[in-house]
Amino acid sequence: MTPLVSLEGVSKAFTLHLRGGTMLDVVRDVGFDVLPGECVVLGGPSGAGKSSLLKIIYGNYRCDSGRILIRDGEEIVDVASAEPRRILALRKNTMGYVSQFLRVIPRVGTREVVAAAGREGGLGRDEAARRAGELLDALNLPERLWDLPPATFSGGEQQRVNIARGLIADLPVLLLDEPTASLDAANRAVVVDLIEKKKDAGTAIIGIFHDEDVRRSVASRVVDVTRFTARSAA
Ligand SMILES: Nc1ncnc2c1ncn2[C@@H]1O[C@H](COP(=O)(O)OP(=O)(O)OP(=O)(O)O)[C@@H](O)[C@H]1O
After folding, report:
1. Which of 147, 145, 204 is nearest to 172 (CA)?
2. Residue 12, strand partner residues
3. Is residue 27 part of a domain?
4. Which residues form the signal peptide (predicted)?
5. Distance between CA 160 and CA 157 in Å, rounded?
6. Whose C-alpha lies nearest to ligand 1, atom 18?
7. Which domain holds residue 131?
8. What is the pTM assigned to this prediction?
9. What is the pLDDT of residues 102-126, one digit of tens each?
């Protein structure tokens, strides 16, 4: 099977401008593949570089060397060298990112916030509205909240809206940065189930999960980021 994501020799150091340009090595020579239907969990202690690596793959941080190859239909895109416009197209059609925080425009109702993400990801209007309702229902978000903007929701409610938003479209690659951080056990189980469905549908997932049970349930494999920590290798 051909991988949907391949990292080859990816290295990144941050330049700390407020500290006289000191370089902080984060990861060095990262290499792994993710096949369709696999969930690769990034492991390692706090500060190992897990979130940074996810942001590098999504194109938020530019790596200093290496290749990040994402299969986009018939084409292979290298995020490390792609034009910003190409990365934006990749995000729309191919690669989703779910962080633990919801960032939305004010005054738009919750169901519309979720449905809009579905339409952006290629779903028709009716299908997006239907899936938005299904996901919000599965994630136990009471229907009386669906027309309200999520700005005033609790942390866990906002996180569930964010998950619905991140999972509604059928994107082939998903990056999950602690999507279950403020959820209770029942809702964590719902998210585990949704992730399993994505895997069954052939989605390639790279995720960070601090909850041990969630990690065990969803991981096809754990990649320990300390293997690539430049500081420990020095
Ligand atoms: N934008 C940045 N500028 C400078 N240093 C950064 C930046 N982002 C992350 N770092 C540093 O890179 C290192 C790795 O951080 P990162 O957030 O990737 O770790 P993590 O493994 O995800 O940790 P946690 O499990 O606590 O979220 C840390 O030492 C952090 O201070």
Report:
1. 204
2. 27
3. no
4. none
5. 5
6. 49
7. 35-62+81-223
8. 0.93
9. 887 788 999 999 999 999 999 999 9
Q: How close is the Cα of 47 to the center of ligand 1, in Å?
A: 5
- The residues, any chain, with a CB within 8 Å of residue 179's CB and separated by 6 or more, are 98, 99, 100, 159, 162, 163, 166, 191, 207, 209
Residue with CA nearest ligand 1 atom 8: 52
Instruction: Give the pLDDT confidence of 54-95 residue by residue, as tens digits.
Output: 999 999 999 999 999 999 999 999 999 999 999 999 999 999
Q: What angle do CA 83, 76, 11 make, to 5 degrees?
A: 65
Rounded to the nearest angstrom, the distance between the alpha carbon of 13 and the centre of ligand 1 is 11
Q: Which helix (H) or strand (E) holds 119?
A: helix 110-120
Query: Does ligand 1 have an atom closer than 6 angstroms to the CB of 51?
Result: yes
- 41 inside domain: yes
Nearest CA to ligand 1 atom 5: 14
Which atom, in ligand 1's list, is nearest to the CA of 54? 18
- Looking at residue 161, its amino acid is V
In 3D space, the residue among 81, 49, 51 whose CA is nearest the CA of residue 68 turns out to be 81
Distance of CA 27 to the CA centre of its chain: 19
Alpha carbon distances (Å) from 91 to 59, 72, 169, 223: 9, 10, 12, 23
Kindly report the CATH number assigned to the domain that includes residue 109.
3.40.50.300
Residue 234: inside a domain:
no
